[in-house]
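Journal club side-thread
Mid-discussion, someone asked how the predicted structure for our own chain would compare to the paper's figures. Pasting it here so we can look after the session.
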Amino acid sequence: MKKQDVFGHIPRRTLLAGVGTTAAGMFLRPLFASAAGASPTRLLIIHRPCGTYPDQFFPTAVGDVSTFTLPTILTPFETLKNDMLILNGIYCPRDHNWAGDQHGAGLITMMSGRKPVEIPGTSSGGDLQAKNQTAAGPSIDQQLLLKPAAGLSGTVVPSIQSTAYRPSSLGLPNFKVMSYDASGAMFAESRPGTLFGNVFSTAMAGAGVSAAQLERMRLQNVGVLDFVNKDLARLRALVPQSQLVKLDAHLAGIAQLQAKLAPKPATATGGSTCAGPVLPTLPNPTGDLTVDEAQHKVVAQSQLGIILSAFQCDLTRVATFSFAHGNSALRFTKIIPGFTDTSGLGHHDLSHVQTTAASVLLGQIDQYYSQQVADLLTKMKATPDGDGTLLDHTLVVYLNECCIGWSHSIENMPVLMFGGKSLKLQTGRHIKFPMRYMNDVWAAVSGALGVPMATFGDTAYSTGPVTGLFA
């Protein structure tokens, strides 16, 4: 079939040229690519903090996960078994004897593969708790963005960094930052309204909307879709019939996000202006709840929803998200119904309690985070994309900065992968490796994306790409 046949009588090149010159075109371009069977691959890395408990995380059997029961922490992924790959025997590429906070060293090395360095002008003095660490170079997500062959670059928003914990956006990077580029730490945005506005305002600017228009959008406090709806109505007639359902679905998703984050006042008027929304309306803390405890679930769901929408519209193909940092003070008695901890400890401090009762509680926290990720993956799996679903065309990596919280252990890191069908990820399995570093996992991921690597990160913690992850 010739390419233009997908679009009826209109030559594809002519149609795309016309669409590309409009702000509405940013919502339509991925549909044309999808209709032509050219859906892009995306990369999403999700972090949850403070370790886990291996006996509640790893199945006792290896092989086909459909043949055995998932442990407690993984039960939220029951309906996603065939989309999941459990990695066992993966080590964090670091040394316990390094100076500096071990949660910080864990997150930095899991993402960059190299020993952290001290922030220029500071000194740890050999202190194992020092918080002055930063990455020695770019993290894996940013390194892959620099490789055109990986197919992750070229979007109007190069990448998204987000979190559901406000303290992760402030202070020194250390255990707070997942992504690093050549310039240094890329702090995550913790405010859903700001993240939504940044992503879609950048997209609008990339579509030719002037700075003056964007400012009018902000002042008038109207939505992104208000600006493009009239143009979309005209262009909708040009969209391939096979893609109309997808167009309506992802525009509806954006509208729902927009309404959830910043409902437009009844007195607002329309017009040819739009803006990112104002700060989101989130639950107010009551009693002794902190703001982060009151809003943690809603913020996490909003941040992940923004990433899903940005992937769906092909505004970006790379994102990192952290529920909270490794010294999280969130008290889950305030977050999880029925959580029976009487200590009043935050997540990090609770992870250092060496009792059976504490291990059960920490397993409940890890299970709670698994449920939030499972909800996102289920939505991605229900989102059509090209010859499959959004999950099929997204590699999702779910990791922690340590294995056991109280010991900051580096062995048997709890790592899961999802989706990645377009990369031939070998899902539906539990693989146990004979001690391989996360660097070797990233080297395999890079190779699957079309960028072969002999090693990734520090060669002292690299032996080459692991086998068995991708066909």
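Post-session note: The two ends are 28 Å apart (CA to CA).
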